[in-house]
Amino acid sequence: MKYILSCFLSFLMVSPALAEIEITEVTSPGGITAWLVPEPSIPFVSLEIRFKGGASLDLPEERGATNLMVGLLEEGAGDMDAQGFAQATEELAASFGYSASDDAVSVSARFLSENRDDAVDLLRKTLVEPRFDEAAIARVRAQVMSGLRSDATDPDAIVGAEFDRIMFGDHPYGSHYEGTLDSVAALTREDLVDAWKGALARDRVYVSAAGDITPEELAGLLDGLLGDLPETGRPQPADVDVQASSGITVIPFDTPQSVALFGHEGIPMDDPDFFPAYVMNVVLGGGGFEARLMTEVREKRGLTYGVYTYLANKEHASLIAGRVASANNRVAEAVQVITDEWAKMAQDGVTQEELDQAKTYLTGSYPLRFDGNGPIAEILVGMQMDDFPIDYAKTRNEKVEAVTMEDVQRVAERLLKPDSLRFVVVGQPEGLPDSAEVVTAPGQ
Amino acid sequence: MLRRALLAAALSASALTAQALETKEPVTTFTLDNGMEVVVIEDHRAPAVMHMVWYRAGSADENAGSSGVAHFLEHLLFKGTEKREPGEFSKVVAANGGSDNAFTSYDYTGYFQRIASDRLDLMMEMEADRMVNLQLDEGDIATERDVIIEERNTRVENDPGALFSEQRSAAQYLNHRYGVPIIGWRHEMEALNLEKALAFYELNYSPNNAILIVAGDATPEEVRRLAEKHYGPIPANPELEARSRPQEPPQTAERRLVYRDARVAQPYVMRTYLAPERDSGAQEKAAALVMLSEILGGGQTSILTQKLQFETQKAVYTSAFYDATSLDDTTFGLIVVPAEGVSLQEAEDAMDATVAQFIEEGVDQEQLDRIKFQMKAQQIYARDSSDSIARRYGSALTAGLTVEDVQAWPDVLQAVTADDVIEAARAVFDKKKSVTGWLMASEEVGQ
Cβ distance A240 to A416 under 8 Å? Predict the structure, then answer.
């Protein structure tokens, strides 16, 4: 088996040419830039827009305002009410998606070449002329609150909220971007208008497109689409230091399977050791069935259906974190195995075979991500949000290839801190150490 | 005014779209001598392929008492063969920059790898190997059985909506195996063993029960050459018989159930009706039901949304759903999530009244035209993902449909008339064939 594997590895270094994807930067007469991959073979365009800041721009007493505001962008704009807008969208067979997250307001659009101008005009109205009708506010507010009530009895939502609170404290990341039942109930139309003006501004916008459109055509529509937005909005939030310390927090909840999140401070993307850390994480828990945690927790012991870790690089904080779910009477063993693996990798790093395998996986799979206009547009806008250079896709695999055993050893020792590793467990876990701290979920 | 201008644009556009669609999907099909069907979907934009093998065997093909064995076997196929150690399959895929996984449903089990196109040869060699050379021992069985039970915990036991759905399906099907969960009943999963897994494997995993689908950067000639090399030498299984599963008797009694769970914060009502599925050469009824589900519940301008969310505001969410692609009788469903202060009884009554009124008043022709135009556009958008075209063919071919049926389907949908929709609605909304379920919090904390 080893022999066969090393054969594959040697000819794998020839990565598919797809990483040579050509990205064009276009700039509108009004100064708005966008990244584009033209692909004329299918007559439609995928367009992605991001406004950096997102729900973290909420004022503290108006938590959930950005999320509710974003939910209302498709509920009436210009001379159309919610139904009018929906009908107009259907008549064009376009689709417009709006969402809020901790770091961004995201707009994803897809429209046919044959009615592109009408579709862009419709999209423009939702961004520049949203109506925030009282009837629509009441309707969408009720939907958000229904979701929040469900979250209060959903193990994943419960554990996520407590984990964020522990990691980020009073920073906006420490509370749920959708707000609470009380905060959402109290939001006024004026709050929503302010949130809109605060979040959708030209100084924080990123645009990408892929599909049947030329650079000239894209440059020509950007000013019409976004030019009427305000120049600036609310100030961006500050960076936050991750606040975890080692230990286990338990939130009692009557459900058969415990869900646990775990993690501590991570590593910023602009750190010189980011790529070694990225490769290390693939070996630890990020690379599917082959990762150590999958092998130890699932394949060898059958303790879970899935366990994984990831580097969470948010705009203002970095984490290394993971998730596991195990039956209440088995989760203690899963927690122990994960803790041991954390310590083991901090101490010993990875093996040469693991490193080689992680690198070939990462370099080989990277080009496969660029499969279609939709995924390409999303990757392009993500690269801009992360301040990557436009030729990043061409150099990314070289950075992975350059990672050495020494790099991984160094970063494992520096990044993985068994003494800071915090577990948050929701369920009725049995057999956890007595030191585990029991807290009550909000709303229980 | 804008509405009208846009509609005019849409109508002129639809003519253009129809033209664009005359170029058919780039699909080639052929059959190997051992009976293995092959579908090649070409998309040369990127040097990557999706390699899939679908077996015409899913949970509804299991024997009574062995529920979950189809899915259990799916997991076990990642253990070793005579040539490969346990876990080596996925390891080789990953070492070649690919990703792999598998899925099980009522009518099929499927395996796939997404990978650079120059690795297709290797993928076929490995997939053909585990079609017939699986090697399992008791140790694999015990650990993997724990894994699927944790999977059941994750997907079902921790989710009251999923538990409710199991009870509802069991009540819907009086005799058919669609009433048994794909993942299995827990007590039967706990009793799954090597013998049961191998029995399912040996009967169902053979080339004459399999469909090879390759989507992406590969030519039909190349796929044929590689398929003949790797899958061609595997003999057909002569013991494999035509699929015939226990069918439903006439359903003559309306069923109602209430599922209570303390973890439910947002109650809702769900109704399903037994409904016909797409049949080979006769997809018209199913097409009308697809249109019916779009008209009733497909988005902001649909009937249920308009009436219950916008006009009366009795609901925070409504939907209609219909799974047209199924080997045997399927279901048509309606969901209403009531607004705060609205009881489930009120929600259900409002749902029934809305459907009755719709049948009485008939179809809004403009709405039907909009839906058809969107479906045409969907065919353009769908070309962006050859993977999803592959899944569309796989699920149809394992549900008794042919390549011709799949290719005719868009035209069958376009041919549905307003009268067809109403006729389909009258036929399907038969309370005697229905299950109405209420999902509620436990009485102690109920509203």
Answer: no
In this predicted structure, what is the pLDDT of residue A243? 86
Coil, strand or helix: which one is A311? strand
Identify which of A16, A114, A368 has the shortest CB distance to residue B13.
A114
Report which DSSP code applies to A87: H
Q: What is the DSSP string of B370-381?
A: HHHHHHHHHHHH
In the predicted structure, residue B143 carries a pLDDT above the cut 50: yes
Give the mean model confidence (pLDDT) for residues A248-261: 97
Q: Does B446 touch chain A (CB under 8 A)?
A: no
Residues of B in contact with A78 (CB under 8 A): 2
Neighbours of B164 (CB within 10 A): 22
Rounded Cα distance, B400 and B211, in Å: 12
E strand or H helix at B317: strand B315-322
In the prediction, which pLDDT does A244 show? 75
CB contacts, 8 Å: B95 with chain A: 5, 8-9, 12, 357, 360-361
Amino acid letter, residue A202 = R
Closest CA to A55 of A68, A72, A36: A68
Distance CA B255, CA B350 (A): 19
Residue B54 corresponds to which tokens in the numbers above? 């679908």
Q: In which band, very low, low, confident or very high, does the pLDDT at B376 lie, cut at 50, 70 and 90?
A: very high
Residue B431 has pLDDT above 70, yes or no: yes
Question: Which of B317, B325, B341, B302 has the alpha carbon at shortest distance from B391?
Answer: B325
Q: What kind and span of H or E run contains A177?
A: none
How far separated are the first and last CA of chain A, in Å rounded? 53
> What is the value of pTM for the model shown?
0.92
Cα–Cα distance measured from residue A260 to residue A262, given in angstroms and rounded to the nearest whole number: 7
Whether A185 contacts chain B with CB within 8 A: no
Tell me whether residues B92 and A4 touch, CB distance under 8 A.
Answer: yes
Residues 6+ apart with CB under 8 A from A165: A174, A175
Here the tokens at position B93 are: 């895929």
Compute the distance between CA of residue A326 and CA of residue A256 in angstroms, rounded to an integer: 9
Question: By the CB < 8 Å criterion, does B353 face chain A?
Answer: no
Contacts of B49 (CB under 8 A, 6+ apart): B114, B115, B116, B117, B120, B214, B215, B216, B217, B218
Edge-to-edge order in the sheet of strand B27-31: B27-31, B37-42, B210-216, B48-55, B109-116, B99-104
- Range 28-47 of A in CB contact (< 8 A) with B: 39, 41-44, 46
Instruction: Quote the pLDDT of residue A442.
Output: 59
| CA B377 vs CA A77, A371, A443, B191, B411: distances in Å | 24, 20, 45, 48, 13
Contact A39 B45 (CB under 8 A): yes
Let me know: does B42 contact B378? Beta carbons within 8 Å: no
Count of A-B CB contacts under 8 Å: 234
Of A46, A114, A287, the CB nearest to B17: A114
The backbone torsions φ and ψ at residue A169, rounded to the nearest 5 degrees and listed phi first, read: 55, -125
Query: Tokens 């040579």 map to which residue?
Result: A20
Local structure of A152: helix, strand or coil: coil
User: Is the confidence at residue A440, as pLDDT, over 60?
Assistant: yes
Judged by CB atoms closer than 8 Å, whether chains meet at B374 and A114 is answered as no
> Is residue A112 within 8 Å of residue A119, measured between CB atoms?
yes
ipTM: 0.90
Q: What is the mean pLDDT of residues A90-109?
A: 97
A211: region left, alpha or beta (phi > 0 left; psi from -120 to 50 alpha) = left
B316 with A146: Cβ contact below 8 A: yes
Cβ–Cβ under 8 Å, residues A406 and A355: no
Instruction: From chain B, pick out residues whose CB is under 8 angstroms from the CB of A153.
Output: 262-265
